[in-house]
Amino acid sequence: MTGIKNYLHSLERSRASLLHKDRPRTFAMAGVDWDLLDGVFAPPFSASTGVAMELLDLTGPDAQPWHGSFLEVGCGTGIVAVSAALAGCDRVTALDISEQAVRNTAVNAARHRVTDRVRAVHSDLFDGLVPGDRHDTVYWHSNFVLAPPDYRYATMHERAYVDPGYRAHRRYLAEAPSYVTAEGRVLLHFSERGDFASLEALAEDCGRRLQVLRNRTVREGTESVEHFLLEITETATGLRGKADRTESGKAALA
């Protein structure tokens, strides 16, 4: 296991960020200020949030106006969700398993006056959504570092860094297409800190295909790490499985 893929290294990064003596209450990113609450993933201590904004074309010279609805899993401070609203999305739903992160997103939505378009929801992946609630874009900046299946989180903060046995990734691959519109797209932010071979195996098992849309390599401390924006689509196997489930559901209601 290389240094950047070592889950113990990522857990050390989590603890350092959580307990940093200079952890700010506010910080600047994408040319504006943001609030940071205790216990929430801190973008100032990681390059990944800034990379996410670039990969989504929400900042920088390639920034483009957005339209339609946007669903973010793992919203943290709410930078991506709020920026999507500021870029033009008329309906943004921001989900996080951390109640503190949900509060942080709501605070930043109020700071940037987009509470009419941004709704923050406490949710373990999609559990907090109403079935049939579909969006034009579904997005997750995942906790892409693979931890052993039996690892138990010591803090809520660690959930932003590692995924034991890639259980959350399996759920996202399997469930995300159910929450996207017919012409919409399912996106996943991944990096070489994660195990791409394992992700591809999970995708195949779920009847999904992964396509790299964009990539960026950035310095994270002493390391260079490549980040990817992936699009998830359903394979023929996945579509057949969906059709079978739909027919089974109709039969149960008959």
From TrEMBL:
InterPro entries associated with the record: N5-glutamine_MTase (IPR050320), SAM-dependent_MTases_sf (IPR029063)
Domain of life according to the entry: Bacteria
Stored CDD domains: AdoMet_MTases (cd02440)
Pfam families on file: PrmA
PANTHER family linked to this entry: HEMK METHYLTRANSFERASE, MTRF1L RELEASE FACTOR GLUTAMINE METHYLTRANSFERASE
Protein name: Methyltransferase
